[in-house]
Amino acid sequence: MTPAIKFLADKGIKFEIFTYKYKPKGGAKQTSEELGVPLHSVIKTLVFCSPQTEPFLVLMHGDLEVNEKGLARQIGVKSVFPCEQRIAQNWTGYLFGGTSPFGTKRMMKVYIEKSIFDLSEIFINGGRQGLILKLDVETLKILNFEIVEVSKMEK
Q1: Domains along the chain?
Q2: What is Dmax (Cα atoms) for the chain?
Q3: Confidence (pLDDT) at 65
Q4: Spans of the chain below 70 pLDDT
Q5: How far from 127 is each of 2, 50, 67, 79, 100, CA to CA, in Å?
Q6: Which residues pair with 47 in a beta bridge?
Q7: What's residue 152's pLDDT?
Q8: To pair with 46 at 20 to 30 A between CA atoms, which of 10, 83, 92, 116?
C-alpha cells in the first residue's frame, strides 16, 4: 500500500488499481498504451520549483506540456522549472516516475490544468512506478489546488 492509496482509502474515495511493467522514460504514453486508455485522460503529476516559492505540483494531461512562462505568470512568480529528482523525492516521498498528488510527504500546493475537469474519469499515478489509479475527476477537489490554464502541445 502506497501513501497515495492509504490517503484515498482513509477518505473513503473509490478507485481502481492498474499495474504494468514500468519502463524509464515511458511516461504517460506508456501508461496510455499499456492500459488502452486515451493519452489525454492520463494525468501527469509534475514537481516544479521556483526561486520565489516552495516546490509545488502541476497536474497536466499526458498529451500536453506545461507552458512554464505562462505558469509563472499565472501564479505570480518570475520563473518556474521542473525540480531536480532529489528535491522532488524529498518533498513528495515518491520516486521519479511514481509521483502521486495524494499522500505526499509534505503538504504541497497543486496547480491543476483547467481542462482536466472536462473529463469524467482520470488515470493518475498511485505512488509507485507502474501503479496507476482510475478515479473520478472530482476526487482532485480534495487537494489544496488552484486551477490554471497553462497547457501547450508536446514538441
Answers
A1: 3-153 (3.90.960.10)
A2: 40
A3: 96
A4: 155
A5: 6, 24, 25, 28, 5
A6: 57
A7: 87
A8: 10
